[in-house]
């Protein structure tokens, strides 16, 4: 009995010891701002990775975009922070300025980098700082197939279809169904119209280019969609537009790849196409196109770096990227994934790629934040009826110049 008791005690001790984390395991921390659908795929990928690498413990922490940006800056400057950061490409500029992200061409060989579409590699000031797991983050036109049989190819067609679909079914004076909805009060969602009329936010040196005829005409056009053609709601933020489309109360919607999973889940029968061409200029609206992807903290020490690189390679692999595409309709950056039947046979993904082909790369310079902040109040003033488009274009430019000067002091 004494021997049996000793064996039992030994087995209990062994079980407790094995159940604890091995103190020799390498600990890798990832901060990200992935939305729910992407978040689940990341967590599943990390779980699979750890099953095959029992000596590695990966901790995945979600943070809102702005929280992630500020917290990472503070921690990295102090020599700490996560090992890997995931987010949109526009955070590269501020991080590079502070020298808190590592140039990737110094640690990944050419054969590895050549596996990716060039659009998935973010080079800035002569260095590669980010590898994307998806191309896009861009806007396109979604249409409800039960309401729109043939999607518009021009803005005139969009207005015509929009008028036919905007209806007050019960005669109470309130619109029950809209032709078009989108988060039109935010500058990012204004960009396709600005580019459709031939404008852009900055020149090659990062100087704002907002006081132009293109800006004026684009502001007038968006305002006319609401006030003259009456095909969009009087007020419409992101959540309102999203809900109306999910409920089948909007024929068309301007949104991005991040929204596809939600509309599939809601059971909406929808298609994707380019935002219609502006006849006055002959231009397709060009949304900002960027990548979302991974960066490496400059503070990762040399002993830990090989483990971080191995995990990094797995997270941007064709296997993981195709999981994103299957679930959410994202555009992969890995060439093998782009050539996979999952991508080729998905009409939604192919339509998203078609829109991205006429998009413009989102600037990653820090000045873009100042430009967004300068555009917003005057853009919204035009929509609020307190300022003309001509006045707004002048004010946007003046405030953007001022904010950039203050930022560079």
Automatic annotation (TrEMBL):
<keyword id="KW-0762">Sugar transport</keyword>
<dbReference type="GO" id="GO:0042956">
    <property type="term" value="P:maltodextrin transmembrane transport"/>
</dbReference>
<dbReference type="InterPro" id="IPR006059">
    <property type="entry name" value="SBP"/>
</dbReference>
<dbReference type="InterPro" id="IPR006060">
    <property type="entry name" value="Maltose/Cyclodextrin-bd"/>
</dbReference>
<dbReference type="GO" id="GO:0055052">
    <property type="term" value="C:ATP-binding cassette (ABC) transporter complex, substrate-binding subunit-containing"/>
</dbReference>
<comment type="similarity">
    <text>Belongs to the bacterial solute-binding protein 1 family.</text>
</comment>
<dbReference type="Pfam" id="PF13416">
    <property type="entry name" value="SBP_bac_8"/>
</dbReference>
<dbReference type="GO" id="GO:0015144">
    <property type="term" value="F:carbohydrate transmembrane transporter activity"/>
</dbReference>
<protein>
    <submittedName>
        <fullName>Arabinogalactan oligomer / maltooligosaccharide transport system substrate-binding protein</fullName>
    </submittedName>
</protein>
<keyword id="KW-0813">Transport</keyword>
<dbReference type="GO" id="GO:0015768">
    <property type="term" value="P:maltose transport"/>
</dbReference>
<dbReference type="GO" id="GO:1901982">
    <property type="term" value="F:maltose binding"/>
</dbReference>
<keyword id="KW-0732">Signal</keyword>
